[in-house]
């Protein structure tokens, strides 16, 4: 729209003023905010922005490719993908406790991103340049919540024995600070970002790691990823994406039940569908999905995902249930 075209122009101008001839770094998470922030900064300073995407192996089907391929194709952004899948799996081995998983995933993320940031800073140094700026997709509601402060940041490095804060001290660039979520989506559309990225529903940072109830393993991730892809495809086909706040798909990895599939008796895992309607995720109600959509999802999952022999529906509001199972 006209107003959003103005917002883009204005922000591009501001970013140019702030960054000047400097260089910037941005972590892409797969979410709308970091993608739109990065696309704006790329438009303003081009190759002087380097994006880093940490592939922790906990994303849903197609999401990493969407960033690596589609996002790069549209924006022309300079992207470094760090394949940290094995590192995350290793760190998560044997861990079932939800908060423990969150801690581990957060810690590993900082470790990997910090190393990638050091590499980017090091490469710039070799060319006699400095990376002074860190791009963040902070939105207006985040600014209000945190009291409006802004300025500098350094990537947390308390766990790092060697210590490296000096090189990783940045001035923040926050081009979305005045915008609400719906405006950010409009800016994304304006910038030509892929629909699926612009309209992405909330997805937790720890990803599928907190949607496997039990230990996270490669095999379990593969099972959940297949089931989740079916759910998302069917909800999209039924044009329900924008009516639902989000629909976690959960694998009860330590639960087994008896079923009969194909040639005979199976002893498989249940999948839980958790479609919710919400305004802000603080409270939520379970979404009354049409029966035919539920039936289609159930049939497809049990036909196409061999390890799953039961599909269940979570009919709990929040409170008392949280949206995620972990
Ligand atoms: P709950 O489960 O607390 O979720 O009702 C509320 C909203 O927050 C998301 N969520 C997370 N997001 N890291 C995130 O970035 C997390 O650890 C996390 N846990 C929950 C959840 O998807 C929902 O939108």
UniProtKB/TrEMBL annotation:
GO terms under cellular component: cytosol
Swiss-Prot/TrEMBL keywords: ATP-binding, Glutamine amidotransferase, GMP biosynthesis, Ligase, Nucleotide-binding, Purine biosynthesis
EC number(s) recorded for this UniProt protein: 6.3.5.2
GO molecular function terms attached to this record: ATP binding; GMP synthase activity
Keyword Secreted: no
Catalysed reaction equations from the record: XMP + L-glutamine + ATP + H2O = GMP + L-glutamate + AMP + diphosphate + 2 H(+)
Keyword Transcription found: no
Organism this protein belongs to: Blastococcus aurantiacus
Name this protein carries in UniProt: GMP synthase [glutamine-hydrolyzing]
Domain of life: Bacteria
Positions that bind ATP: 29-35
Summary of subunit composition and partner proteins: Homodimer.
General function of this protein: Catalyzes the synthesis of GMP from XMP.
Every GMPS ATP-PPase domain range: 2-200
Pathway: Purine metabolism; GMP biosynthesis; GMP from XMP (L-Gln route): step 1/1
